[in-house]
Amino acid sequence: MTSSIEIGLDTAGRPIAIDVQELLATRLLVQGNSGSGKSHLLRRMLEQSAGLVQQVVIDPEGDFVTLADAYSHVAINAGDYDEREIATMGARIREHRASVVLNLESLDIEAQMGCAAAFLNALFDAPREHWFPALVVVDEAQMFAPSASGEVSDTVRRASLGAMTNLMCRGRKRGLAGAIATQRLAKLAKNVAAEASNFLMGRTFLDIDMARAADLLGMERRQAEMIRDLERGCFLGLGPAISRRPVSIRIGATQTSTRSGTHSLLPLPDAEAGDMREMLFAAMESPPPPPPPTPSPVAAGELIERIARSDAQESADPASGDEGSPQPAPAPDSEAIVRAALEAMLADPDSAFQPDAMLYQDFSVRCRMARLPAPPIDLTAFRRRFALARVDIFDPADPQWSELLAAAAQLPDDMLAPFLLIARAAMDGQPCPDDEALGRAYGTHSPGRLRRLLDFMERQGAIVVRSNFGGQRSVGIPALGLHTAAD
């Protein structure tokens, strides 16, 4: 089966092909001003390669959802899901090799960046057995990997930029091949753009963008002027998957189009000036009274807190003069609610690999739904309690765990769960947990990170790893005087 697709024709009318197999290894960068034909180019590439490789499209404007009508793509409207659900879908996409279009058009720019970051990180963090080849197309990439800070918060910007950097710099070994398009190279973070080896440069007018495009194409600066004269739908291509020398390409036709179609001239409506004025100002001679002001929307969390507070006050103030008035409802047992929330979260297998902030948000919602006005513990305390719960320790104040927790005091909280997992195995005389169990406790699929974790704990004196001549391994806990069984 050939891995080449026809993208368009050169100036002599000869077909120009893109080697998809090579593209997966070398990535693609597309630049062109608005209206130069970037989206048309990406659509042509996606249509031609639809039967060759899994495709994932980050679509900020909803331009590519029509691919689902003609191909097997699944359109995901990001506005219908929260961050946790988006991350879960990203993991399942890698597992089932589904081609999807993540439609972000209903979100504002900050929400788009946060959603794209969660989605791309889930693709990147998939377990090794799901590292199938996938072409990840990101339109308007300068929004998700900006070269400078803008109006969005630094936290969201760093998360989005980190996800894009992982895609372009480290994604190849995980089967992810980035194909990103931007209006201006100057707006795109340099460490993201620098990882592409294939380039398709469309029309642009600013000197700085023309100079950078010419430099990437290996052209002299005086030749950069030709980039300004390119027609719409024409691009200069270069790279191991396209051509070893710069070649001018007119992108071919596509089978699908955007939902809005092309913006072409339409005849103006045929109406007399008086009729048009009557239509515009109809029913404005005596305007109706203005409606009452709409109250500002209340955030869901704040509303839940208000309901909880009002219920607590009503139950605390029994009706006066009534012998049969109901007694105040007992205050909820916060410790029992915390334990129930932790147990419910641990029942979800995906919780092991979620960020702490996302887990704490889930925990807060569960506490409020259990009629607690506010979470009884902050993020730092939750991180420790969740780590303990992963090894079935739900009551840290229980004296039977005091010696064990004292042995773990020298380690950071994020290393608490894997250490306690090993220590519990030593206390029970069991073999050391395997890498999969330790990775789940540490929240990683990476064997390298797991090895570095064990090395760090050994350097801190928390554990001692021993191997006998038969290759069997056991792990000792010096603070407890115990060791796991040899396996």
UniProtKB/TrEMBL annotation:
Tell me if Secreted is a UniProt keyword of this record. Answer: no
Classification via InterPro entries: ATPase_Atu1862_pred (IPR014588), HerA-like (IPR008571), HerA_central (IPR002789), P-loop_NTPase (IPR027417)
Keywords noted in UniProt: ATP-binding, Nucleotide-binding
Q: Which Pfam families match?
A: DUF87
UniProt keyword annotation of ATP-binding present: yes
Q: Which Gene3D superfamilies match?
A: P-loop containing nucleotide triphosphate hydrolases
Single GO MF annotation: ATP binding
What this protein is called in its record is ATP-binding protein
Which residue numbers delimit the Helicase HerA central domain? Answer: 5-110
Positions of the region Disordered?
A: 310-332
